[in-house]
Amino acid sequence: MNINWFPGHMKKTRELIQKNLKLVDVVYEIIDSRIPLSSRNPEIDKLIGDKPRIVVMNKSDLSDTNINKEWINYFNKKGINTLLIDAIKNKGISELVKQTEIVIKEKKERQLDRGIKNKPIRAMIVGVPNVGKSTLINSLSRRKSAKTGDKPGVTKGKQWIKLKGNIQLLDTPGILWPKFEEQEVARNLAFTGAIKDEIMDIETLALKLVEKLIKIAPFKLEKRYDIEIKEKSALEVMEKIALKRGAILKGAEIDYTRVANIILDEFRSGIIGNITLERPS
């Protein structure tokens, strides 16, 4: 399946980031802990340049705890400030505020030398769609400042949001890149919901996800659906799940659309288990 998607509003978002970057002191790049590389937009690296940055690995409650540690070590070795958070449960939020103060400490000292006191820290939040940017903003502000949703593309336009403490945050809509050079990256984004299901072949997408889970988390699949998958193809496993869940049409035909939605929904919500699709190695 060939995935390629770059709506017009993505171009506007890129221009929005470029235009407002000079207004901020630090950038929060939020990524999905289940796909740390695939959810890092290479366009953002080019746009941000040397601006101080904190990589925020969100949805850590859905990813594998041990692999989370591998990714933290990976990014830290590259000199990238990285934090694990669960924005829904407010885990890691206080640490993010502390790290923000550390990252811009030198700039604040220079401002004090010039007699500038109590100037708000201005931050920008960027990332691909559906990684939890709006949820993170609401956790930081402790109020519903930004719209949230389980579909990509909920955030619209530019919003400055005052956070507790002395931080002002610029939210931006999610930004994907014009062309997916690696289809595996595109599939990972689709698996986690960063690309709208409406433009996808759901049945094939779920089949590809099952294929991947057979390789990296077979026991979790077996436990969740009470099935045996040894030496079974992805299609056979998908059909077994359909039978277990009653995803059957008249005439005993498999309802592939229904079982595909079951598998994707249960993976995305963590019901199948805490699973990370990528490892640093």
UniProtKB/TrEMBL annotation:
Domain CP-type G: residue ranges: 13-178
PROSITE patterns (alphabetical): G_CP
One BP term from GO: translation
Annotated Gene3D superfamilies: 1.10.1580.10, P-loop containing nucleotide triphosphate hydrolases (3.40.50.300)
Primary role: Required for a late step of 50S ribosomal subunit assembly. Has GTPase activity.
Family: Belongs to the TRAFAC class YlqF/YawG GTPase family. MTG1 subfamily.
One Pfam family, short name: MMR_HSR1
PANTHER family assigned: MITOCHONDRIAL RIBOSOME-ASSOCIATED GTPASE 1 (PTHR45782:SF4)
GO cellular component: cytoplasm
Localization of this protein: Cytoplasm
InterPro entries from the UniProt entry: G_CP_dom (IPR030378), GTP-bd (IPR006073), GTP-bd_ortho_bundle_sf (IPR023179), GTP-bd_ribosome_bgen (IPR019991), GTPase_MTG1 (IPR016478), P-loop_NTPase (IPR027417)
Protein name: Ribosome biogenesis GTPase A
Entry binding sites for GTP: N58, K59, S60, D61, N130, V131, G132, K133, S134, T135, G174
Main location: cytoplasm
GO MF assignments: GTP binding; GTPase activity
Source organism per UniProt: Senegalia massiliensis
Keyword tags: Cytoplasm, GTP-binding, Nucleotide-binding
